[in-house]
Specification:
Layout lengths: L1 H10 L3 E4 L5 E6 L3 H14 L4 E6 H12 L8 E7 L2 H10 L9 E7 L6 E6 L7 H21 L1
Antiparallel strand pairs: 1-2, 2-6, 3-4, 4-5, 5-6
Length: 152
């Protein structure tokens, strides 16, 4: 029941897409970091995909920053979830075996200090002149966008 209520609450939150650069697709929303992160995880799993690894970026930066003498807090919270899609990845690598470097896919969820928003972002697939790879990369971007929109 708690998960259902969380889902209902998250669906009511406003979100907007923002593309500030050529390598990132970003969305912002309101809510708690934990709720947004959990909704992204549910959206990934809802596509029949398995999260193979989660990177705790904020924790890593805090831990290593002390050794580097860095004091600036980049994120309050930040996690990156990695996963792959057998069908989309296979099409991409059949189109170009060198596209292996684009897998696994990842979606990042993060909160910047002194910012009320929670951000959800992924790497924008690169452009390609190879028609088959171009089509496969469009499918990758569609999959990642659907995951984020399903979550938000």
């Amino acid at each position: 029941m708690k998960a259902f209520l969380t889902l209902c609450a998250m669906l009511c939150l406003p979100f907007s897409a923002m593309a500030a650069d050529t390598f990132t697709v970003k969305f912002k929303t309101q809510g708690t970091f934990k709720d947004v992160r959990d909704m992204v995880a549910l959206a990934i799993e809802g596509k029949g995909l398995k999260i193979t690894h989660s990177n705790h970026i904020a924790d890593m930066l805090e831990r290593t920053g002390k050794d580097l003498g860095a004091t600036r807090q980049v994120y309050e919270f930040a996690e990156q979830m990695e996963f792959c899609s057998a069908t989309v990845s296979r099409a991409m690598m059949e189109a170009d075996p060198h596209a292996i470097v684009l897998c696994p896919y990842s979606v990042s969820v993060y909160k910047i200090p002194n910012d009320k928003n929670i951000y959800v972002a992924f790497r924008k697939p690169p452009a390609s002149k190879n028609p088959a790879l171009k089509k496969a990369l469009a499918e990758v971007e569609t999959l990642l966008t659907e995951i984020v929109k399903d979550a938000l």
